[in-house]
Amino acid sequence: MTTDLRPPKVLMTKIGLDGHDRGGRVVATYLRDAGMEVVFTGPWKSIPEVIATAQEEDVDVIGISSLASDHLLVPKLMAALRENGLDHVGVVVGGIVPDRDERDLLAVGVARVFHPGASLDEIVPFVDRLAKNVRQRRQGL
Amino acid sequence: MSDWLERLRAGDRATLARAITAVENETPEARAVLKAIFPHLGKALVVGITGPPGAGKSTLINAYIETLRARGQTVGVVAVDPSSPITGGAILGDRIRMGGHSGDPGVFVRSLASRGHLGGLSRTAAHVIDVMDASGRDVVIVETVGAGQSEVEVAEIAPTKVVVAAPGLGDDIQAIKAGILEIADIFVVNKADLPLADRTAGQLLDMLRLKDHGEWRIPVLKTVALKNEGIEALADAIAQHAKLAETSRPAPRARAAKLIAAQAADLARRSIQALEEKVIDDYCDQVLSGALELEEAAQRALAKAIARS
């Protein structure tokens, strides 16, 4: 078996103190319906919790849902991923992110920021491709 | 190769995560992993937790982990959630209820999707449990998908099985149904602060009275997992049963024989599926027309598949 046919594995989570998790739930459901395996945690996760979960579950992609400025914590998350040897994991952010902040997030390695009104027809194929790229870069034990 | 095995045995979390990925997904490294860990198996206490959806399995496990950690034991959890039979996708949500332990290096939780496998686990779950065992976890907890009456596969994998019920789920007749109720070594009535808890526990006890019991008398325990009530007694019962099961554990050779048989069945299925369509069609036509009986067709297909490989 040389090709990796298993479904993409995505961690859908929310960092910070904001509890608006409807958006993350909707996206998680659509990723599931697109055939992906989605670890769903709900809101209020600390960065160390996200790191531990991403590591234990060996996910390909982390989706961060942000409504009320949680996205400002994402650069810290990216640094923590690097420190913990998880820099192969793709990170996408969805929610309310001002343009200026988006540039900062992309600069620290976020693969993509999805804004309000983003279509699931955009999100699903993007996450799928990202997961496949992550996996190709990562072979062996 | 022995490099990663050393790291795994030393408890390195990243190595554990990736070795699990390998065996879960049968990647090219999987065979090497299984081969290397085999001499290191059989040290962990493996306990299966099963029961209907909503009984509180994940919450109970969260509380049980806390007790185990207080007793100085390291824990691995394998939590299986169902895959969609239509799209293959899955929401893996068991760890939502086990959130109290992330950041504790003594706890490692891995979620698996069932991927169309029936029986309450995923097809490769047994291998994932083995990897956790080899990594030196003291206790490995296996949570099945919310199980009905026939998801009893966990019985083959976990020497100690806990069946979790919730008060008022089903009427009296449910208590005598075959299947999941028969595999229990320990019964737990969770949410025992709800009104019907005593009745549910009573029904289970009634059922057990009709059962022959040998050395082990199956207890019916009441817990309120959310409030941490009854968990010490549960942990004690699991430890006692595990000690007893230790003496009656199948010898490593018997276990290996079973694994070889399972692997052979798997291999046979895959190699038959790999035959060209025309060959298969030919057998199908013969079976459909009544020219060939099913078993004969299967034997010929298998012989052909083996000859090809």
Return the string of H and E elements of chain A. Answer: EHEHEHEHEH
> Which strand order spans the largest sheet of chain A, edge to edge or round the barrel?
2-1-3-4-5
Give the DSSP E fraction of chain B (strand runs of 2 or more residues): 5-15%
> What's the total helix number of chain B?
11
Please name the fourth-level CATH homologous superfamily of the largest domain in chain B.
P-loop containing nucleotide triphosphate hydrolases
Largest sheet, strands/sense/barrel of chain B: 7 strands, parallel
Question: What integer value in Å does the Rg of chain B equal?
Answer: 21 Å
Q: Total number of β-strand segments of chain B?
A: 8
- What CATH architecture of the largest domain in chain B would you give? 3-Layer(aba) Sandwich
Helix content of chain B: 40-55%
Low-pLDDT runs of chain A:
none
Number of domains of chain B: 2
Total strand count of chain A, please?
5
With strands numbered from the N-terminus, the spatial order across the biggest sheet of chain B is 4-2-5-1-6-7-8
Shape of chain A: globular
